[in-house]
Amino acid sequence: MSADWGPVVVAVVLFIVLSPGLLFQLPARTRVVEFGNMYTSGISILVHAVIYFCIITILIIAIGEAMAIRMKVKSSLSLSLYQAFSLTLGVWELEGNIVVVGYKRTSKEGRLRDFLTLRMNDWAASLIAAALFAFLSPGLVFQMPGKERPLDFMNMKTSLAAIFVHMVIYGLLLVLLLVILHVHLYV
User: Fold this and answer.
1) 117 within domain boundaries
2) Looking at the 3D structure of the chain, how many domains does it have?
3) Pairing with 140, which of 49, 55, 65, 168 sits 20 to 30 Å away (CA)?
4) pTM, whole model, 2 decimals?
5) At what angle do helices 124-136 and 160-174 cross, to 10 degrees?
6) ∠ Cα 107 112 100 (to 5°)
7) At residue 45, does pLDDT exceed 50?
């Protein structure tokens, strides 16, 4: 079984780009948008987390769906004739996220007549990445390293060193959840 590193790499790059205060902060303290101010707030982390979720969902789910359409011929060939005839009422999982739903109805010739193949999307990468983005944004819960101490709590500030350390923690947690533990949420 191979690991899918694509969502982890995309999520880590977006974590750096969309960290509030590094490139921009929306909404800012005095204006709607400020660039490179190295401050953050709860509302700006929420806005950046929503933007992050939208972008990562588009990149992982929508583009992944387009790639799956091109690969549909290969995945549909994995349903052997024996498996098709042994299909019974209910849901039958096939290759992780390809699900065959249907019932066995045979004609006089003994052929399977009706079954429906659905591709279910894996939302775990988008949801876990967005939740960790909000939780690990420097300054919201903690900032490591802090300004005066190695660890500051809820100071609503950030720095390049803190973004780097939080990015490493973020990446390691994503690798643990998505690559090592294979957390999936098919909807």
Assistant:
1) no
2) 1
3) 55
4) 0.71
5) 150
6) 150
7) yes
